[in-house]
Design goal:
Blueprint (H helix, E strand, L loop, with lengths): L3 H14 L1 E4 L5 E4 L1 H33 L1
Antiparallel strand pairs: 1-2
Length: 66
């Protein structure tokens, strides 16, 4: 019984740290401290990309109409 105790402690600690959650992007992710930071970075990059493509699309449309 003594040899099982450390393993069980590690397992429960891991289960506490990581839960499956639906991210706003629709990806099932493991949420821990690191995963949350990665998720925030991905979300920031995505919004910047969307904004950039919107600006580029508007500029292209204006050039085409001009």
């Amino acid at each position: 019984m003594q040899s099982n105790r450390p393993l069980k402690g590690i397992k429960s600690q891991f289960e506490l740290r990581s839960t499956y959650v639906w991210d706003s992007t629709g990806i099932v992710g493991m949420i821990g401290i690191e995963a949350t930071l990665v998720g925030i970075l991905i979300r920031l990059q995505k919004t910047q990309h969307d904004r950039a493509s919107h600006v580029l699309g508007t500029a292209a449309r204006n050039l085409y109409l001009a």
